[in-house]
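Design a sequence for this backbone.
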């Protein structure tokens, strides 16, 4: 793991600064509905939502457009492309899958023990056959959290990620309390109660006082966490079909394998994001590299 106390915000803040310095705008709360494209001409129709909740439809025009929405959004047809994506492009998009990954965050009011058993990382191996596979396996403690905040994060994947995303906060607390209580509390941990915030109400010290989980799988703007290549991906077609841009006049049946989009100045619709990098798909580096690749192609085509 790479630790950086600045977080990813240090990367985004520099990008935002550079975009604004160049006269660009970043529109938040703007959901794209349609992308109409032809050589050198793009119209993007989007629904803008104000801070008061009012919505309005806006049309944005440009010479080219870069789609950086997730693979899950593209596969769901949430955005209407005019003309529709050619069949070879859809087939390329369906060669890979969107993985389900979630993070669970919990905060405990007290330390489990006074000795050194509160490790920075905890791995649980669940032997209970009634529990689903991948049941809260890996936990990491936030060392930078305030001293009176015992904050832990758990990684979940696959079906278990989907299951936990659908749970209520109280149900997550129930499951985490049982997990940590059985691991650290001994046989009678359920009978040991502590007063909760001076309220006179007793609770187990292994019950989190707060819990939250990401919603990447169910969020319509993500529809999954990151891309992954299943066995047999691109066995019957070139991987270049995935990253190739479109003009609006593309053949539907098969892509022209000899065409290099970086040399074709009619390309109008480009694709970028972690799923469209051939080395680091699924990672931030992949998203960055793909954006850099497409930016160079657009500059070459101007």
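Sequence:
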């Amino acid at each position: 793991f790479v630790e950086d106390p600045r977080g990813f915000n240090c990367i985004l803040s520099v990008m935002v600064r550079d975009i604004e310095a160049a006269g660009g705008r970043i529109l938040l709360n703007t959901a794209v509905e349609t992308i109409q494209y032809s050589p050198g001409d793009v119209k993007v129709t989007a629904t803008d939502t104000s801070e008061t909740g009012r919505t309005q439809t806006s049309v944005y025009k440009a010479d080219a457009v870069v789609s950086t929405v997730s693979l899950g959004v593209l596969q769901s047809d949430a955005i209407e492309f005019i003309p529709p994506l050619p069949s070879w492009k859809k087939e390329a998009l369906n060669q890979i899958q969107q993985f389900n990954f979630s993070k669970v965050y919990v905060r405990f009011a007290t330390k489990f023990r006074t000795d050194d058993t509160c490790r920075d990382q905890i791995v649980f191996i669940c032997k209970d056959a009634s529990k689903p596979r991948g049941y809260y396996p890996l936990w990491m403690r936030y060392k930078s959290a305030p001293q009176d905040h015992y904050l832990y994060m758990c990684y979940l994947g696959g079906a278990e990620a989907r299951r936990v995303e659908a749970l209520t906060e109280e149900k997550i607390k129930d499951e985490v309390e049982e997990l940590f209580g059985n691991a650290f509390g001994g046989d009678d941990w359920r009978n040991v109660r502590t007063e909760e915030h001076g309220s006179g109400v007793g609770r187990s010290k292994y019950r989190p006082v707060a819990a939250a989980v990401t919603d990447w799988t169910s969020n319509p703007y993500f529809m999954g966490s990151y891309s992954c290549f299943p066995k047999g991906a691109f066995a019957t077609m070139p991987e270049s079909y995935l990253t190739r841009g479109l003009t609006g006049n593309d053949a539907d049946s098969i892509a022209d394998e000899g065409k290099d989009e970086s040399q074709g100045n009619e390309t109008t619709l480009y694709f970028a994001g972690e799923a469209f990098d051939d080395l680091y798909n699924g990672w931030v580096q992949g998203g960055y590299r793909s954006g850099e690749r497409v930016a160079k192609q657009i500059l070459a085509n101007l």
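The helical segments are 9-21, 71-75, 87-93, 158-165, 169-184, 240-243, 284-301.
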